[in-house]
Amino acid sequence: MPAIMQLENVTKKFGGLTAVDHLSMKIEEKSIHALIGPNGSGKTTSLNMIAGVLKATEGAISFNNEVISALPTFKIAQKGIGRTFQNIKLYSSMTVLENVMVGGHSKGNLGFQSFLLNIPAARKEERFLREKAEELLFFLGMYHLKDELVKNLPYGRQKVLEIGRTLMGDPSLILLDEPAAGLNPSERLEVVSILVKLYKQGKTLLLIEHNMDVVMSISHKVTVLNFGAKIAEGSPMEIQNNEEVIKAYLGSKRK
Ligand SMILES: Nc1ncnc2c1ncn2[C@@H]1O[C@H](COP(=O)(O)OP(=O)(O)O)[C@@H](O)[C@H]1O
Ligand SMILES: [Mg+2]
User: Fold this and answer.
1) Where a domain ends, among 170, 190, 213?
2) How far apart are CA 52 and CA 68, in angstroms?
3) Which residues surround ligand 2, an ion (CB under 5 A)?
4) CA 113 / ligand 2 centre spacing (Å)
5) Which ligand is nearest to the CA of 13?
6) Any domain includes 125
């Protein structure tokens, strides 16, 4: 498979701190690629640069062979890159369905004002968004919860809902920042099965994850960061047996 995304010598400095240090990597189209490393190793910062929330200090990021690192966030999203956040960012006083629908508005060609004015075209678009959101909730096994307020949902459901909201934008590449963090084993299995289903639909996933059971069971390729720099890359099996990775990361987790 060709690369859908390429990072070349991407560096991010915050003052004197180098959070990401000359990171180069390729993400193959229609694959699950994991980005792992100890806390503070630059994983979220890398994701934020890909999504355009942070600008790289140095280096280039390309998506489908086009350099995107200079584009604003909304343009990057429109190109087909979706993301979830390490800390959940949902509207807790809105319903499940409304939260998913919000993920679709950026793609609509009508402004928010038309919704307020309730003009017919806006009503039509809203109907479209609603149906699409309902379909996605069904896909995620959450249709029965569509009218619940998000604040009443267990944490695990909120994490799944974030994935649903991202899917409203029809991303071809989905960036997931610790989608299984804080989940119990059965919730983790549910997230794993959703990620595998997305992969089977032809999506490409870049996954930051601490739970090694999740990473090792579904990733095709794993990139390991330590102090912002790539220290290893390979199949889950290769990574599990890599001396430097064990020393820097896996070893320290066994203590
Ligand atoms: N906005 C910021 N300003 C200053 N330092 C930051 C900022 N964001 C992250 N950092 C620092 O950059 C390093 C990498 O952070 P991060 O990418 O969040 O790591 P990870 O996601 O791997 O835990 C850490 O030392 C962190 O404190
Ligand atoms: Mg992080």
Assistant:
1) 170
2) 8
3) 43-44, 86
4) 36
5) 1
6) yes
Which domain, by its residues, includes 3? 1-80+173-182+205-255
**Is 197 inside a domain boundary?**
no
CATH number at residue 91: 3.40.50.300
Residue with tokens 């890359």: 233
Q: Is the pTM of this model over 0.85?
A: yes
| CB of 86 closer than 8 Å to CB of 44 | yes
**CA of 137 relative to ligand 1 center, distance in Å:** 33
Contacts of 141 (CB under 8 A, 6+ apart): 160, 190
User: Do 67 and 91 belong to one domain?
Assistant: no
Is 59 inside a domain boundary? yes
Cβ-count burial 79-98 (b if 16+ within 10 Å, e if not): bbbbbbbeeeebeeeebbbb
How many domains, the chain? 2
76 plus 177 within the same structural domain: yes
pLDDT tens-digit profile, the chain (255 residues): 789 999 999 999 999 999 999 999 999 999 999 999 999 999 999 999 999 999 999 999 999 999 999 999 999 999 999 998 777 788 899 999 999 998 886 445 556 666 666 677 777 888 889 999 999 999 999 999 999 999 999 999 999 999 999 999 999 999 999 999 999 999 999 999 999 999 999 999 999 998 888 999 999 999 999 999 999 999 999 999 999 998 887 655 443
Using alpha carbons, select from 32, 2, 27, 63 the residue that is nearest to residue 194.
Answer: 32
